[in-house]
Amino acid sequence: MVSISTIAKRAGLGVVAAAATSGVAYGAERLAVARARRRDDPDAGRSFVPQADGVRVLDSHDGGTISVLTKGSGPPLVLCHGVTLSVRTWAKQFDSLPVEGFEVLAFDSRGHGESRCGESGHSVDNLAVDLRTVLETLDVRDAVLVGHSMGGIAVQAFAARHPDVARERVRGLVLMSTLARTMFSGAARLQAVVERLANGVPDVGGLMGHRNLGFLLARIGFGREPAPSHVELVRQMIESCDPETTRLATRALLGLDLVPDIGRIDLPTLVLSGTADVITPPAESRRIAATIPGARLETFEGAGHMLMLERADEVDRLIVDFARTVGAGRPRREVV
């Protein structure tokens, strides 16, 4: 029989071992973050707040609001960000694209940034309708739509489910680091299990509030050797996202399957993907490019999910060249 004193000693050793393990893990975390933060960073000290000419707050169809930033003049480029992020995603594009002679319009998705979610909540249909609201309320015409991650889902859903409006107002689509189908599509039981597990996970924004742990988590969205300021920006955006939006907006995407719809898209489409993207893997971009008729795929070796930050110059050049090629800003010729 084991004595109480022996149990106490063993328990004490267990506590010491656990504390030591925790200390090692904490030390490793600090070391990893310190090493990552020491990388050369041309954007060090940048606030990543888009410098806009104007702000418009639009009413959504269900009682919410949509905050839109605009800058520049010329052919319109409409930028749609990813889940748990905000218009800050596009801070570099707000500097570069107007210089190229374009008007840039970027909006916070419902429940994100400065936009308020409407009473019908989060859904793929609402993403599409909100994009339609921006185009129609601001009377945007002959535009190129640029969608990143969830924003890319919004662009695909809009073009597929509102084809008449898309043909009237849009000249082309740029789909960046996005997908048209998730692994949970058609698997209701598996989706339910994932939703239950997600409800038991600590608040993501709360985790991001821990500067080192949050930095390591945000780092997952990047490829090789990202700039520390870019990782920190993503950490800040996710931390700032309302916990209810994080939970419900993410859950709304679990059963996504736009593949049967996007084959009907008849707009020029450019698909961009990083080969090291673990959030929306390159296979998903290949699926989109193979499904949308005539779509062109461009890949970035070693890049991750945040292409507009990681490879800003290359991405901007592709967007500009594509927009000019498809005639952004030029009215379509009427066929007599």
Task: Give structural attributes.
alpha/beta, 14 helices, disordered N terminus, Rossmann fold, 336 residues, 8-stranded mixed β-sheet
The oligomeric state of the chains shown is single chain
* First-residue to last-residue Cα separation: 98 Å
Strand content: 5-15%
Percent helix range: 40-55%
Choose one word for the global shape.
globular
At the first level of CATH, what is the class of the largest domain? Alpha Beta
The largest sheet is: 8 strands, mixed
Could you give me the name of the CATH homologous superfamily of the largest domain? Alpha/Beta hydrolase fold, catalytic domain
Structural class: alpha/beta
Radius of gyration: 22 Å
What is the average of the pLDDT values?
A: 88
Short description:
With about 325 residues, this protein is of the alpha/beta class.
Describe this structure in words.
By secondary structure, this protein is of the alpha/beta class. The chain has two domains: about 1-40; about 55-325, Rossmann fold, CATH 3.40.50. It contains 14 helices and eight strands. It has an eight-stranded mixed sheet, with helices on both faces. Helix 4 packs across helix 5. It starts with a helix and ends in an 11-residue tail after the last helix. The relative contact order is 0.14.
